Amino acid sequence: MKLKQYQVDAFATRAFEGNPAAVCPLQSWLEDDLLQAIAEENNLSETAFFVPSEKGFHLRWFTPAAEVDLCGHATLAAAHIIFNVLGYREPVITFETRSGDLLVRKQGDFLQMDFPALPLSVTDTPDQLTKALGAPPSEVWAGDDYLAVFDSEDAIRAINPDMGLLSLLDLRGVIVTAPGSDVDFVSRFFAPRLGIPEDPVTGSAHCMLAPYWAGKTGKASLSARQLSRRGGHLTCEVNAGRVVLTGSAIIFMAGEITFEP
């Protein structure tokens, strides 16, 4: 069996920055166990698989350990391949996903992704979270992930989490965030439960981050930077329960998966 596969640096303007994702176009779905095995073999934070549909494309995302409901950077990567390699002619791609229909619009060299804003609620700070992060946050919120708020960008850069303790928490992952020195906010994202110790740039986390910081700043449009080693920059717009994330992508590698079925 042979399958085309691409590796794309998402939320990047050049190679070796942003978040790498594998993208595998399919004509029809393979068995779930095989999709998961391919993602595990790739050992990237996400592998995106898509097949054509009446609306556009069905899209699914797999970490090395599990399928997830929403992933921003791998959606950006898949859209980049559809527009720039497959030659998709329409201005907007509709992806049918486990999180509903997601729209991606091409705007010059950038792609705009229309995602749902994800709800957050204030929660008590789990002792294990403070121990894992090595410092007490000023606020903690809970949604799909814990959102731990700190006072400064320097505090976010200084965090050296205990991944073993983080993996024992009950939610998908942990976002740490603070006001930025030259952007509206900065963040980092840790998800060792999903086989991702630190994610370089996390689109889905900004579906929680952007509404939170819009409420704090009164801004509907915000600039953001994720402070991983590779780093990445996003523009976020919050409107009527939706978050529009804008970024660009670069193809790093094109290849072919070859294996015995």
Description:
With about 260 residues, the chain is α+β, with helices and mostly antiparallel strands. It folds into 2 domains: about 120 residues, Diaminopimelate Epimerase, Chain A, domain 1 (Roll); about 120 residues, Diaminopimelate Epimerase, Chain A, domain 1, CATH 3.10.310.10. It has an 18-stranded mixed β-sheet that branches. It is globular. It starts with a strand and ends with a strand. Belongs to the PhzF family. InterPro entries: Phenazine_PhzF-like. It holds the Pfam family PhzC-PhzF. This is PhzF family phenazine biosynthesis protein. One of its GO terms (molecular function) is isomerase activity.
List the helices and strands and how they pair.
Elements: E1 2-10, E2 19-25, H1 32-42, E3 47-52, E4 57-62, E5 67-68, H2 72-84, E6 92-97, E7 100-107, E8 110-116, E9 121-122, H3 127-133, E10 139-142, E11 146-149, H4 153-158, H5 163-166, E12 174-179, E13 185-191, E14 196-199, H6 206-217, E15 221-226, E16 232-239, E17 242-247, E18 249-258
Parallel strand pairs: 2-3, 4-6, 11-12, 13-15
Antiparallel strand pairs: 1-2, 1-18, 3-4, 4-5, 6-7, 7-8, 8-17, 9-10, 10-11, 12-13, 13-14, 15-16, 16-17
